[in-house]
Protein: Phenylhydantoinase
Organism: Cellulomonas bogoriensis 69B4 = DSM 16987
Amino acid sequence: MKTLIRGGTVVNATGRTPADVLVDGETIAAVLAPGSTLLGFDVAAHVDRVVDATGKYVVPGGVDAHTHMELPFGGTNASDTFETGTRAAAWGGTTTIVDFAVQRAGERVQDGLAAWHEKAAGNCAVDYSFHQIIGGVDADSLAAMDSLVEEGITSFKLFMAYPGVFYSDDAQILRAMQKAADLGLLTMMHAENGPAIDVLVSQLLAQGKTDPYYHGVARAWQMEEEATHRAIMLAHLTGSPLYVVHVSAKQAVEQLAAARDRGQNVFGETCPQYLYLSLEEHLGAPGFDGAKYVCSTPLRSRAEGHQDHMWQGLRTNDLQMVSTDHCPFCMKGQKELGLGDFSKIPNGIGSVEHRMDLMYQGVVTGEITLERWVEVTSTTPARMFGMYGRKGVIAPGADADVVVYDPAGHTSIGLGKTHHMNMDHSAWEGFEIDGHVDLVLSRGRVLVDDDGYHGTPGHGRFVKRDLTQYLV
Ligand SMILES: [Zn+2]
């Protein structure tokens, strides 16, 4: 199957240019000057399908490096399966996800990884890979890290939050980072001071402060700044590169920026919710509505200016990428578990479908450039996590993961069920998007076009990731 995408503007992280894209089978065969002639040969006459992309952007498919399909959390499971979650991703122009395989204290890392392979295999509409959560750092799990690279898993995640669930203390973090430095693995960190947060949670509940709003009060920015700093220092000591997930506090960005200015290999990810939503308007919504917006790290105060600071960090490269931390829970039967006790609300927001559209709004409003949009949503995640060249770029030889995006189009994330995530609500209801995902190819196969959805479970393949040199 040969497809020619003609007349559009190809946008990579490095620049934009009018060009035609020839897809042959699963890969991009050529990026051609407009007009699609090659040595006098009319390429359009020799393909199976021609797509007219006039007036549109042709960009690499999105790479969402932080999702949690079917994650068991807070006594329930994230409501998207790999099937429903990757279908929603495809609708929104995301053609690769990196999810998190889980090992808990007392479990074998190999078993956790095998369990996640089992959940995903045969079910994904788009390509996928895994980071490995090490929730119980001990001699066995440290030894098991040796085989991760062979398995194509080049990054793992630790938690300074959630004592009794995923939490690692400083001694465990130090050991795991030493191991990571030896192996060349990237250490990902959930940086919040969990034990101190738990004290604040119980004090607030004892005062009768049980509404979702207090989730944000308990998880104060000081808890994030302190943990981010501690993680940076431990990483510095061990020589491990560090990637801080879901950064939401401006003070945490300042810690990352200071470390980077000292020459340290540290990186930060933020998420659409920390750019657009706030403690006051959303976590503080009337009644129990704030539960929709309970995630960790929490939404921050707009009065304190965190959201503006996240945009600034994206511009200055103190933050390198935007993932979703997609971890959806329905209100009914799931978020409701926390009625009368905010600490029992399952943590998570579903955004996997909307990340490309939401971040494109930053281009519309002038917060980031068109090229930076591609960079933070596709190119950097591909490069950071060892997939660049295959993913994250429109270039000959790359996987034909291609999105045709119409800047003149419109996407309404209306009230009610206008999205494709397996949720009974969306944190993004009511958002009006300038721009539209017109066409989505995954390894040359059409997943979404004007006629709707054509993907199938099982098209998506596991992506073995390479080690990366972290000198960004
Ligand atoms: Zn997460």
About this structure: The two ends are 37 Å apart (CA to CA).
